[in-house]
Amino acid sequence: MSMLSGKKVLLAISAGIAAYKTASLVRLFIKSGAEVKVIMTPASKDFITPLTLSTLSKNPVSSTFYDKEDENELWNNHVDLGLWADIMLVAPATANTLSKMANGTCDNLVLATYLSAKCPVYFAPAMDLDMYQHPSTKISLDTLQSFGNLLIPATSGELASGLVGEGRMAEPEDIVTFIEKDIHSKLRLRGKKILITAGPTYEAIDPVRFIGNHSSGKMGFEIAKSAANLGAEVVLISGPSSQQIQHSFIQRVNVTSAQEMFEAVHKEYQDVDIAILSAAVADYKPKNVASQKIKKKDTTLEIALEPTQDVLASLGKLKKQQFLVGFALETNNEIENAKGKLQRKNLDMIVLNSLQDKGAGFATNTNKVTIIDADLSETPFDLKSKSEVAKDIINHIIQKINA
Ligand code: CTP
Predict the structure, then answer these.
(1) Which of 211, 238, 255, 310 to mutate to test the pocket of ligand 1 (most atoms within 8 A of CB)?
(2) Looking at the predicted structure, is the pLDDT value of residue 256 above 80?
């Protein structure tokens, strides 16, 4: 999944011949899962039509504050546009537009929106080589970077004038890669490896039957997504679950039984920074697994059970650099039981679900948790969607590891 997936990209086009490449740029943003709106300086419409860009972006394209010809036309609100964007990209950025941006000039919609934008602003200059080398252009580039705007450098090559030199707008693919890399470099879990367990385990009775539980795996999958979206490299070890996940930072490992989960987790544990064990692992398994299907009889059937290995407790014993997080699903004496587990299993944090809370637990899309830290302090959260709960859990962990 691209770093741009779900992001709102505002593409501002100024009047350079490289504007013809913005059609590809819009396509690439859309392909990477971004939502795109385009604004243009009036003169840039000589190089590419708004119709091309609105068709590709699937959004209206604006170049003026309002359309004088159309009585019903609404004012194009530059403040709303500036606030809507997660990312603003000025491409091509001409010498004229760069100079105006650097000086706070505000005589068209692109410039007014630039001044209103609170998001990161990238700019990709495009001009002839002498213009690019001119001291006034250099001052614009330096000034804009001193504002925190991000320069996507022009490249060298043949220019529209026929001259050869520096001033070509970076290629659309390279612009997209530049922005993706920049987003990634700022993510709060970049460089961290996280192990997450999710779902139930199935303990075989015979070749067709098992002992299991109602865990859907949703909570663990949401935690994995939330961590990966912040740049973490995630290994998600899941018991049987119908949840789907597609993310380039998540490696999914499927297991069935508690023993398989134990082995898969221990394979990864040594070099992870954070381990979050949200799986509902079976505490018991049949002592003997019948090799043939057990036939029905009139008498009662007794299945002897023996304990499984406690994965979390084992990780607690081996713990070195890892920040270890467990879950506790409780029906009574919740806080006390969760604190007991935290201490017994040598955890840094435990996430408590109480089945007394409506909307919490296995089968729902919501959850209500209390986080308990190693110092036994309690942080209760409201009932929220599992994806929001996942973000709360990840944010809490980030606070703790950076404290
Ligand atoms: N857990 C585990 N391995 C097991 C059992 C549990 O890793 N064999 C982990 C779970 O993933 C969870 C935590 O231990 O993070 C707590 O699970 P829970 O079932 O609530 O606690 P138990 O220690 O099994 O205690 P009890 O069932 O008696 O409440």
Answers:
(1) 310
(2) yes
Architecture of domain 8-185: 3-Layer(aba) Sandwich (3.40)
75 pLDDT exceeds 80? no
Rounded mean pLDDT of 269-273? Answer: 97
Reported as a single tens digit per residue, the pLDDT across 9-47 is 999 999 999 999 999 999 999 999 999 999 999 999 999
Measured between alpha carbons, how far is residue 71 from residues 64, 68, 74 in Å?
A: 14, 7, 8
Pocket lining: 348 vs ligand 1, CB cutoff 6 Å = no
In this prediction, residue 107 carries a pLDDT of 94
8-185 and 193-401 have identical folds: yes
Distance 6 CA to ligand 1 centre (A): 35
Q: Give SS3 for 193.
A: strand
Percent above pLDDT 70 for the chain: 97
User: What pTM was computed for the model?
Assistant: 0.81
User: CA 234 to CA 237: how far, in whole Å?
Assistant: 9
> Residue 223 CA to chain centroid, in angstroms?
11
> Among candidates 139, 77, 70, which has minimal Cα distance to 103?
139
Look at the alpha carbons of 49, 52, 56, 60 in this order and tell me if their dihedral is positive or negative.
positive
d(CA 197, CA 210) in angstroms, rounded, equals: 20
